[in-house]
Amino acid sequence: MKLTILGCYAATPRTLTNPTSQVLEVKNHMFLIDCGEGTQVQLRKHGIKFSRISHIFISHLHGDHFFGLPGLVSTFRLLGREKELHIYGPKGIKEAITMLLKLGDSWTNYPLCFHELTSVDSQVIFEDAKVIVQTIPLDHRVYTNGFLFREKERERTLNIEAVRYYEIDKAYFNTIKKGKDIVTEIGEIIPNRELTFDPPKPTSYAFCSDTAYHPSIVPLIKEVDCLYHEATFLESEVHLAKKTKHATAKEAAEIAKQASVGKLILGHYSTRYSSLELFRKEASVVFEPVELADDGKSFHIG
Amino acid sequence: MKLTILGCYAATPRTLTNPTSQVLEVKNHMFLIDCGEGTQVQLRKHGIKFSRISHIFISHLHGDHFFGLPGLVSTFRLLGREKELHIYGPKGIKEAITMLLKLGDSWTNYPLCFHELTSVDSQVIFEDAKVIVQTIPLDHRVYTNGFLFREKERERTLNIEAVRYYEIDKAYFNTIKKGKDIVTEIGEIIPNRELTFDPPKPTSYAFCSDTAYHPSIVPLIKEVDCLYHEATFLESEVHLAKKTKHATAKEAAEIAKQASVGKLILGHYSTRYSSLELFRKEASVVFEPVELADDGKSFHIG
Prior knowledge:
The structure is a homodimer.
Chain A lengths: L1 E6 L13 E6 L2 E5 L5 H7 L9 E3 L5 H4 L2 H10 L6 E6 L2 H11 L8 E6 L6 E4 L3 E7 L7 E7 L5 E2 L1 H6 L7 H5 L4 E2 L5 E2 L1 H4 E2 L6 E5 L17 E5 L7 H7 L4 H10 L5 E4 L9 H8 L5 E3 L5 E3 L2
Parallel strand pairs in A: 3-4, 4-5, 5-6, 14-15, 15-16, 16-17
Antiparallel strand pairs in A: 1-2, 1-18, 2-3, 7-8, 8-9, 9-14, 10-13, 11-12
């Protein structure tokens, strides 16, 4: 998986900082997560082809997470898009986007499919042969979901030497990779573990923003390879975090620790702080490794 | 008047070009005209204080002219704005903006006043002691208004030498500046023209975008000091201009010529052309002087 941060700052777009948006590249998909104002310009800036985006996941309906969406949807039309676009987000998103388009007497000439979310329990919202996406119910001022992206369990890896040794016909290879034992012509059972190696662990990424400190997400994101967790504030402003239902860097790290994730990425910073390093420092005391998101930065996951 | 172009390109925001937005500074007002996506970042970039903006004029409800408005309205709240904000635009704009705010369970803590426009005739939409703003009905694919900003007729300038010569008391100065004649104690009438000079001509600016070639606006914008007229295309693409109800550089110049304006500024360029100079060249054959708008450029008017 490759994660590219298009924007990771709280509240409003500024000259040098963008509101939330990121792109996750996984198994030929280019998933767009949140779409703050200016996202389409950030996509251009980072050379991400608009045509590769078919699925957009919106965490919640605060402006800094979706005010770039109407413009992006319109631009797709101007670019002559023909293929389907799927938008996953809280109930209300369909009416908002369609109303804005109708006001301009315009429409999309490509199929625009809204998947409106209302469940307070985690649910699978996208699945194909290789990837599964499910919601992570979060605790914010409005209905908010994080998103868990998981590669599906891969097939076992063939032990070439072993299958040669047992002189197994190629016709059985797919069966073996699926984990089945083999019965030879003389009735002998060859256990699958002698013919295969464990597959590489499927990679997983959890996006959790915006949210207060919310330990009930821990079982859902247990041992993900990478957790992006909002850290709007430092502990010195924990009272503001509580009041606005955001998290501190320390709280993000607590979640990462409890869930034993592979790596924590912090983001959604308030612009009140002089240096992002303050966030890393605070989180590192509780959990490591900690990475700092920043606009334009990419991370390889898994 | 000082006009600052925040964005003047057609269609979608790109890395180096912004959709329509401009700021007109006149008599202590900072009027914002149109508000494409990214306008708030452009305002910051050009050091324009958000608190100085109290009136926003939206020409029409195509995304490239108003998708930056929800974000700007939200940012005003985050910045703790208390004073009124007036938004003038086509019917529907109120429902759109309030719906987007409601979805985020947010509202403005300052008075937000919508002035929805439906008239197909020119109407005065703002007036105070020094400035008057009226609509310029345009011809585009959706209901669209340009805006005419005029300083009001100023008071006549006192001829200090003359009033001294006639030994006129200061108490009469305001009456004289308003154009009244003076009757002396012995009943002699001193005509106002002997006591005053003509006031400087009031400055005027007309914003006309988006629109097809539409000569019926000419009487309205007659002899304005400065006309901003869209020129999405060159004559070589006049068929596209007709189809999409936009104008060519030549057509913009025809309007400027018929209205005998002081200066023509071109803008709303399609990004298909290699150089903006092509627009100037085409327009200059018909009318001069022609200026080219560009993002970040300022013009002094009057």
